[in-house]
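$ ./design --mode recover --in tokens.txt
reading tokens...
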């Protein structure tokens, strides 16, 4: 688990670099330009040739990359191919989102995950048993002992390949017309997004790399990474929301009541996010039985509340960051993200030697909290949005208090009746606060 987490952390950085902000730039110019086909072809051609160039150069210097990173050359090879295939799928996926085709988008994404999951189950769980029963059989030809990490990457590679094959018709549908002027404008818009993306990768994944560099054991990194995954419910909510909301923000930017719409959306994101946050933290000990069934990882359970809240803060930041994208000041987003990355790096360096991976969790929530506050304060000066700050702060504060009570007080942590009661109180508070809105919705129906 530790080895895979460290390698995948490197992979995330290169994913960001290979898309170089073109995804967000695509949404901006797709909604801004009249010739949408020109936007599609220019962005797709740009990513196509940059991805091919990366593939050739990386394969040529894979031994050098292996020596520099300390990662086996075979894993470098798999990673290069995965990164290239994923980069080639960026604009086709963005096109589906921009065109409002969530069903096809979801089917392809779910298929990708299922292929990855099923191949992992086959290679890691079934194949060793099959070979042990029939050592001379067909399956023994591609079974290698102590190659578990390699099988994980082969599964990922297969999933990425199938995904690209499904999306490859988009490359045949474009005119292959490259607009240099448009591309320059898109790059000017997108490069600050690249900087912000690298900073985001530092906040989200560099902690595993730092833990490795600072000689924390791979078993501890594995435990931290495993318990980190309990926060996936908040990550899933945040990710699904972000995928849908980014094109929505751009498409509604010209509306007369756009700011009011953004404020309302943010408030309800906080309501649903607060509820998910509280449920995940309150029932974390139940979730660990399914997501992290091996009790050797449970020493790292103490990071769960911090990671869940950190991802919630990141989701709120995503809402608050709409203003600099709409006024074409993405460089401000880059500054905010860089400051968040600096908070991450400084706190990790200071805290890891003292409290190991718990320091990384503290650094993550501190970084996202800082970014959230900065984006709100700057946004109200540059692009005022009438957020219902009192209600948002109330929901967020009550969630933090109830989450802390349910997780850190031993008696409450073991008593699920009290936890359910806390959730019920929170729901009642939401109902009383939003009663007028809910009654209007019911009457409208």
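writing sequence...
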């Amino acid at each position: 688990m530790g080895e895979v987490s460290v390698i995948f952390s490197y992979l995330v950085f290169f994913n960001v670099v290979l898309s170089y902000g073109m995804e967000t730039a695509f949404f901006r110019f797709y909604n801004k330009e009249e010739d949408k086909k020109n936007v599609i072809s220019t962005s797709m051609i740009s990513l196509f040739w940059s991805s091919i160039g990366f593939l050739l150069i990386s394969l040529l210097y894979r031994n050098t990359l292996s020596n520099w990173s300390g990662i086996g050359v075979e894993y470098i090879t798999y990673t290069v191919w995965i990164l290239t295939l994923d980069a080639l799928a960026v604009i086709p996926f963005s096109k589906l989102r921009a065109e409002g085709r969530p069903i096809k988008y979801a089917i392809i994404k779910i298929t990708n995950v299922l292929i990855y999951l099923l191949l992992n189950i086959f290679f890691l769980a079934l194949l060793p048993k099959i070979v042990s029963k029939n050592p001379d059989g067909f399956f023994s030809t591609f079974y290698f002992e102590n190659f578990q990490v390699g099988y994980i990457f082969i599964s990922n590679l297969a999933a990425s390949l199938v995904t690209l094959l499904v999306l490859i018709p988009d490359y045949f549908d474009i005119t292959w017309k490259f607009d240099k002027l448009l591309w320059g404008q898109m790059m000017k818009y997108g490069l600050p997004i690249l900087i912000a993306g690298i900073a985001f990768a530092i906040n989200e994944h560099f902690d595993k790399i730092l833990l490795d560099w600072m000689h924390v054991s791979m078993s501890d990194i594995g435990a931290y990474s495993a318990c980190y995954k309990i926060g996936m419910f908040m990550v899933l909510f945040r990710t699904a929301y972000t995928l849908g909301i980014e094109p929505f923000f751009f498409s509604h930017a010209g509306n007369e009541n756009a700011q009011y719409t953004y404020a309302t959306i943010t408030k309800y994101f906080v309501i649903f996010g607060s509820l998910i946050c509280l449920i995940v933290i309150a029932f974390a000990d139940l979730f660990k039985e399914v997501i992290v069934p091996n009790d050797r990882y449970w020493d790292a359970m103490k990071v769960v509340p911090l990671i869940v809240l950190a991802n919630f803060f990141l989701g709120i930041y995503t809402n608050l960051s709409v203003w600099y994208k709409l006024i074409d000041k993405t460089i401000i987003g880059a500054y905010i993200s860089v400051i968040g990355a600096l908070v991450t790096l400084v706190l990790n360096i200071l805290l890891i030697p003292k409290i190991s991976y718990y320091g990384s969790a503290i650094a993550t929530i501190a970084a996202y909290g800082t970014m959230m506050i900065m984006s709100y304060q700057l946004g109200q000066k540059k692009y005022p949005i009438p957020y219902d700050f009192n209600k948002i702060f109330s929901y967020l504060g009550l969630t933090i208090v109830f989450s802390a009570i349910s997780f850190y007080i031993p008696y409450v942590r073991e008593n699920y009746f009290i936890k359910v009661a806390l959730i019920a109180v929170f729901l009642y508070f939401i109902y009383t606060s939003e009663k007028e809105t809910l009654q209007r919705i019911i009457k409208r129906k």
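exit 0
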